[in-house]
Design brief:
This protein has 254 residues and is an all-alpha fold. It contains nine helices and no strands. Helix 3 runs antiparallel to helix 4, helix 5 crosses helix 6 and helix 7 packs antiparallel against helix 8.
Length: 254
Amino acid sequence: VRARAVCLVAACAVGAVAGFGPVWWGLSALTVACIFSYDRLKEKFPRTGFVLMGLCRGLSVLAGHSAAAWAMSWPGAVWFFPFFYFDAFGLAVAFAMALAVTLYVGGLTALGAGEERAVGGLPRSRYVPALFPFAVLAVPAVFPFVAKDDPLYQVSFDDVFWCCQLMSTVLFGAALCAAAWCAAVRPLGVPHGPEERGDAVGAAIDGLMLFQLGAVVLPFVQYAEHGAVFVALAVSCAAVRFLFEFFEPSVKSS
């Protein structure tokens, strides 16, 4: 309870000191509401729990985007973020990422449900959530329609390929995430125990991290080294995890 209170107060303090706008406060309030609802409803209504957990992560993506968009309003911020990520295109990416993360985490929650008593093999439908990260493909499909009259882009309805190029790191992260999910659930087709199910959940969470890294690197795609940035961040995250596991072996999963 104390840890929850500290996290809540810290988030509110950051929002107040930084002067985040009403969009951030609204999204953060919705996230907190989903968290409290999940804790109280997941046992009575399991399927509702899957949706609420997904919304917790999806709403956090939108809240993070609103905070980043506010940061872009700082005088001179363009010198730190020389990319048009926080306009209409960035908003489209944020909503697509939120949808993809919500679906994926819902599937992840379903995979982990009752893992302490997992015994039977899972059907082939266990691979379906690997498709969820590709909900981000809604961006290149829809964006040309949204921005066709925007003088900043001057795009046509034939510029889906251009948009996919712009989304390269996000789509790469989606592919890695899908591969991680498939590799994680592959051994679960036969009877297994709680330990095997827990390992699969942890590996699927790792895939989500790679997916989100693709969005983090998106502002760098105009530079040739954006692939190196992705690899550097992924290696850094893996190194931090290794250090946690080395110095705090009691910390499990991701």
